Amino acid sequence: MIGGVLLVFFGLVSLHVISIPFLNQTHLHTMKVNGGMGFFKAAFMGFFFSFAWSPCVGPLLAQAIVKAASADSASTGWIYIAAYALGFICIFLLLGFFTTEVLNLLNKYKKVVKYTGVIAGLVVIGMGIWTLGQAVQTYNASINAIGTASAETQSSAEPSASASAPAASASASAASTQTDIAKYDFSLKDGDGNTVTLSSYQGKTIILNFFGTWCHYCNQEMPGLQDINNNDPSVQVLMVAAPGLNGEGDIAYVENYMKTKGYNMKIVYDTDLKATKMYKVSGYPTNFIYKPDGNLLGYVPGYVSDTDMRNFIAQSQQ
């Protein structure tokens, strides 16, 4: 949300709807270059030329940095910055190779060129609005899911006949002869090739977390999940990764990623996506919370804060 607000703000700055006086000031200093222009002198001059232009490109650069900072992975963030840099230097490469032709073209169409800044500002505002929209959707989904999970703990009604996944049936009837964990049990391999079943953890509160190493909000959840895993023996955190899905690495990559980050939570691998499809997971992270009796407390599509997760654990053990 903050990133979206900043994008809209800087877009308005680019359109001069919002004026920041200190960014509109120009400071000039004449510098003599003795002995001709060489490679290193040109690079030195280029650096200070870019630095002097910082008030002009500052809002656009800030937008690129905000977009990079909100990327799902560091590599994606670097691609955003590289794309910005490439776009920035294209005009200078053209000027360097075709100086006369480009200057004549710019002079001929100077009335058109002045609108490029307007177009850029509108594009940035559009990006900001889109980013805000995505943030609001994620926030609303999390809030609605939290409310749903809370309500489901108080419900003992039989799930509807059309329910075919945990996402559709939150808890089993007290009179039911089959628990949710039995309905939606699975057998998946861990990193060592051992078979892990969900039902083997019945008797504990189970946090079933579908995640991706590339997922920004998944990574935000992990420290809290690791703390629960380390300090609450009544809870089993079970992570489910899907190698190859949405660019996820193979099992060795995920194992190394989690180890490098200092996480030792139990991870199983849904290589054929059967568990992902059975649970109707459409986005990461998605958390399913099972009560110790084997019935489902509820599920949350989207980020769950550490405080909310601990509240769910407390609810599951009531």
**Mean pLDDT score:** 80
Secondary-structure content class: alpha/beta
Major sheet, described briefly? 7 strands, mixed
Specify Rg, calculated over alpha carbons.
27 Å
Low-confidence parts lasting 5 or more residues at pLDDT below 50? Answer: 148-176
Strand content: 5-15%
The ordered H/E elements are: HHHHHHHEEEHEHEHEEH
- What's the helical proportion of residues? 40-55%
What is the global morphology?
elongated
| Ends distance | 35 Å
Strand adjacency order, main sheet: 2-1-5-4-3-6-7
What is the total tally of β strands? 7
The DSSP helix count reads 11
Describe the overall structure:
The chain is 53% helix and 11% strand. 27% of the residues are buried. About 9% of the residues have low confidence. The chain has 318 residues and is an alpha/beta fold. A 7-stranded mixed β-sheet has the order 2-1-5-4-3-6-7. It has 11 helices and 7 strands. Helix 8 links the parallel strand 3 and strand 4.
